Fold:
Amino acid sequence: MSADSPDPTEATAVVPALVRDYRRLLRLFPFAYRRAHGAEMLGHLLDAATPEQSRPARGDVVDLVRAAAREWALAPLGPTAERRRRGAVGVLVVLSVVLGYPAAASVGGAAEILGQGGGVVGVLQYAPLAAAWVLWAVGMLVLAAGTVRVAVPLLGAAAVAAGVLLGGMAYAGASGGGLYPVLSGLGWALGLTALAVAASVHAGFRGLATGADRSGRWARAAAGVGALLPVVAIVRAAADVPAWFPEYASPVTSLGGGPLVAGAAVAVVVMLASRGARQALPVLAGVAAAVVVGRTGLMGSRGLEPMDVVDLGNLWALLAIALVFTAASRWVVNRVDELADARASLRPA
Amino acid sequence: MFLDMASKPEHRPLQEPAFLVLSALAQGPAHGYGISKDVEESSEGRVTLRAGTLYGAIDRLVAAGLVEVDHEEVVDSRLRRYYRLTVAGGARLDAEARRAEAQARQALDRLAARRASRPGRAVAGGLGEVPA
Structure:
């Protein structure tokens, strides 16, 4: 709530404990949201309170906690609904294309294994996230066809499937296997989750659109490109063409440090310069951090060798690193937005 | 047909809370609590928009350009921010209301035709006698 907000305790017939409790509940919201709506929400809640009411209504408590959780979940996309709309499209476009690579590697590998009679066990061993990528590819095809509301649950199911498969792999790793496949897959699972959330936000705004939906066209085109890669990989595997993607190939290991860092730096600068594109940066930074760090030796892995030392704390550490990158990038983007707003307000009308 | 419907924004119906918020603002600028009271009354208590849900919905409507802030005032030391429909919001509400009206009229016409074709019988499907 802003410092110059009115003091609701001056209002008549309001129990001070009620004001205190509502203020505490409103503190659950992110700062930017409280700054925008805290004062009016408190006024609304007190207006709606019955005389002599001393505690928040149960329904209000549930509603506020749920709304606060939603705001925190969407905070990486931006502090306001307008910025989230732009951020969701950016995440959708970039991740649709980027995730096509691991999807093709995994699905193509699974098709080859099945073609060679490796069976489901072989797929789970060598392409463990293949089921999640198949769901993702179907979701992308549906999204490319323009039916966003059907694509959202499919993409959500892909993210959940990736989480469940990684959980199973972590459990197997903790009981004697290696954790490297889990660490290297966690970044992609975060990417799937971010894509599903972005698609959901995008679908919500499409329902309110009043004119031509240009952002939807971009999202559909990117989804088409993303879906094409695993489809081609399956076709090549079915035609018995040699593997398209080398085993364990990844953008990180195949490109090396220099070109990747330079390319990422250019992409960040270009995106920061665009008011719409920069809203997607924090989410993309978090996913990129998880993908890159999960594949380095930083988390205790020994290159591409299976890990002997089992430490599930590494997974939490990797998630924390992704979160820190997201939060730090969001802070930077918010400051750039404030600067742009200040410049715009000084411009002559 | 399916793809065509999916790609045209004007064919996507508004969700009920968004429709009711726009409908509340059609009477003129209103603050959050006023909107929530109006929604509850106009839906005969069926829809309750509590503060957390309401301001999220208002934010999305503002971002979509259907609603904008009108003015602010302080009453009993409580901030009240008034919102109003934009031109686009009014047009969208008008289109949505006409579509709902056309659908309701079509349904009533069909039920009337059904009654006329089967005089003296209750309408199947548990509707019973539908008032004219």
Notes: Strands of chain B lie at 30-31, 67-75, 78-85.
